[in-house]
Amino acid sequence: MAETPILxxxxxxxxxxxxxxxxxxxxxxxxALRAGRTLGIVGESGCGKSVSARSILRIVERPGRIxxxxxxxxxxxxxxxxxxxxxxxxxxxxxxxxxxALIFQEPMTSLSAYYTVGNQIGEIIRxxxxxxxxxARKRAIxxxxxxxxxxxxxxxxxYPFQLSGGLRQRxxxxxxxxxxxxxxxxxxxxxxxDVTTQAQILDLLxxxxxxxxxxxxxxxxxxxxxxxxxxxxxxxxxGRVIECGPxxxxxxxxxHPYTKALLRSIPSILARPRDKLATISGSxxxxxxxxxxxxxxxxxxxxxxxxxxxAMPAMRAAGADRExxxxxxxxxxx
Amino acid sequence: MTVLEVIGLRKLxxxxxxxxxxxxxxxxxxxxxxxHIExGETLSLVGESGCGKTTVSRCIVRxxxxxxxxIRFRVGDGGAVDIAQMPKRALKPFRRHMQLIFQDPFSSLNxxxxxxxxxxxxxxxxxxxxxxxxxxxxxxxxxxxxxPGAYLNRFPxxxxxxxxxxxxxxxxxxxxxxxxxxxxxxxxLDVSVQAQIVNLMLELQDRLxxxxxxxxxxxxxxxxxxxxxxxxxVGKIVEVAATGDLYARPRxxxxxALLSAVPKPDxxxxxxxxxxxxxxADPAHPPSGCYFHPRCRYAVERCRxxxxxxxxxxxxQWARCHxxxxxxxxxxx
Amino acid sequence: MRATSAISGIFARLAPWRGxxxxxxxxxxxxxxxxxxxxxxxxxxxxxxxxxGVIVALFYLVAIFADFIAYTDPHATDARRSYIPPxxxxxxxxxxxxxxxxxxxxxxxxxxxxxxxYSVDPESKLYLxxxxxxxxxxxxxxxPTTTHLIGVADGNAEDGLYLLGxxxxxxxxxxxxxxxxxxxxxxxxxxxxxSLFLGVLLGGISGLYxxxxxxxxxxxxxxxxxxxxxxxxxxxxxxxxxDWTTTQIYFAITVIISFIGWTDLARVVRGRFLALRGExxxxxxxxxxxxxxxxxxRHMLPSFLSHIIAATSLALPAMIIxxxxxxxxxxxxxxxxxxxxxxxxxAQNIQxxxxxxxxLVSAVPVIVIILAFNFLGDGLRDAADPxx
Lengths: 334, 333, 388
Prior knowledge:
heterotrimer, A: alpha/beta, four-stranded antiparallel beta sheet, 12 strands, B: alpha/beta, eight-stranded mixed beta sheet, 30% helix, 25% strand, globular
């Protein structure tokens, strides 16, 4: 596709410098988000997907730091590299909320318990749009209606603890969209919700995307959610992107051994009853104990001694819009 | 042979208000639940938050005392004994035959005890005071769950989530129970680890002839593990059937909606889904008639007025719905 | 009995299962580290807390060796030596060698007031010595000896050495502070022991059984805490018979102070019990058939032992301040007993302070030990429960 991605992450490295060692939370990740599409980032714990999201918004907590890489955002006034901006500076603060918004997994802890829902949404509106309280409250009610909260004029004065999990997540979405960003990053937005509520929220996100042309980065460990929502998929393992491509290709023609193993090992509602699950041998390495070379090689069924444990494979093109980081594909293609 | 038979189980929690803490209402956490488990079988109890499945699991192992109902448990080849209202002292000999596996691998092991002692505790408490005998048994258990013997002296904080869950399983198996109640045993684990634990549990069931009551909210995991499935909604069982039947041809609208809501790991199956409106009903103030009727797309006037009973709609398939016989509901795979 | 074997299980440096190799590498060490070791490692990182711990230890050393550190009999009065200011210590001798000395004092009778006024006598020099001879005392209350930490080369310390000056009755302040340390620190300790016992017992019952008993105990705690402390002390102290010996008063004060102190600890203990009751591993033990006793001693108590230690080290300074305040107000210990509070009594009068400002030095050890205990307690608490 010739169209420039609205957000392009290139070679991102975010390290945490602890007393006991350096945790390479993100170790050279590259992916691109296109306007109006959903990019799914999938991986297990320790793969760096959440840290990537926080790096984009420059809210990585100490002792974490972006060590290298670029995060190029296309704005009205031109492109800007978010990695180079001052994290606390005015430009970054203007971008947060108005250009890129983030919703979290646990709405109870990300909503302030001390302020009403309307107050919290209103704060964002006032911050970015500069309107006064009454206008902000009116807009807050509109937003609550947009995310499907029944009787928004009553709910706007309620506190988060008075709402159920699903409603709180809707409030989070309303807050995220209050300043009308073009990009929404959703970090495990439905993991803490019941499956029927999850369906409602995912449905809502899809609807909002269509309505407003939002670009969404959806971070999750649930392959089912990815299959439902994503247009493009990025698979991460231990801080690196090991495969990316369109969602259909990833599910039906996976290339990287980890992607293949992951797809085989997920419990599927389409399986036969009492089918055993294929497992991935070994376990995710301890962050201080990273394997040399390809991070997946200790667990890989196609491990090639002498190659996989020596050097890190680069991300190479492997078909239309596909990239893989694996020595199995080094021979094929340029 | 039926290992466990639960009849009309009820658990009510009082709602207290005011300075004198007067009881102003009841939360009907479990509202008349009946089911049975055969030897060597896995029955899964599924439902969303607040449906009462965790409370059922706690009542069965008598971590909670039921408000009403019978829990008939059979030990070995003997007769079935109702343990629902048994005083705590009399329960001790039965406790060893049914054990619980917990959801959270991080809080289910005492962080101040060594692994060897954690697994050995049930043995110690039940009379195996000989340390070398205990050690032998603990080592055998560790082998069963595929954890290296060197872990005897380790502490839980040094183990991963998956390893801790295995240790929890080893502890549950220490007394050779016939029934294991597994309360969301894989929900807190990574996907690849989930697969390992699920396989382990299936293997152990084959080897040791265990019966499982598997509590879960993840319908995909449940399909891999169960022989039969019971679906709960706001304290009541709304459908029970063999796994294949339940998933292919559900008989209750709630089951249909649940199955439809589960995201399928195949982008080509993004068919139209049934999106339920509204929120899960409040167990303290359930709706009139059928608890599900406010959200049900098939509801009629009768559903608002009359509470349906659990009835056998097809051989082996029970549903709590007035219209179960006439509806054709959509399943999966 | 079962309880005793369960109790011995608390101090769970369990004999590791034999035949299993001990930990070699550093990462392995963490795997095999007991909770106690982990807590200790975390504590060690806290510089301020560690140094505070050292200071507290030093203070208790002073308390144990009080008479050794003093050089003048703290009870001996001598009106002629009244209000002598602190002496300057000269480290170097005239010939440049390291030989600490002080000027002697010369008394001259002021003909107007007929009082003897002491002034520094530039002629006389008294050399200081370590482990010098001094007044007679019993080390540890058992061994009679006359050796003291500091003294003068020849002659009596009484005649010339006044490192921190003297009070109205001519008693050397350094010696009195040293001896006061003993009483002030140990009365704190005794009080905390009583508080600890009451706090753990009542807090434990409250948290474990809940229900009516819990409500009753909590209301009792609230009533006790709501009583204004100073009037309560005054009332109770005034109720003590005048003819009691110092020792009896000593213990009565201890009881009075710990009567208030246990409430804090009880609430901490109750909170922990309540939190622990719901823990999965406790449920697991119950389901395995463990007895109540075993669950309390083997599962619950070790979990909050570290909290108790932390709470205790924060309760001690409160005890010390209580005693100091009471005695300062004249309601606690009475002379001839010596405690920091009693020493500070002498500094109550602004006119006295004008003449002899060095009397305020007695406040310095109080401030230092309170700060040290607070930092130590904070450090212990953070190490024990980094997330709490």
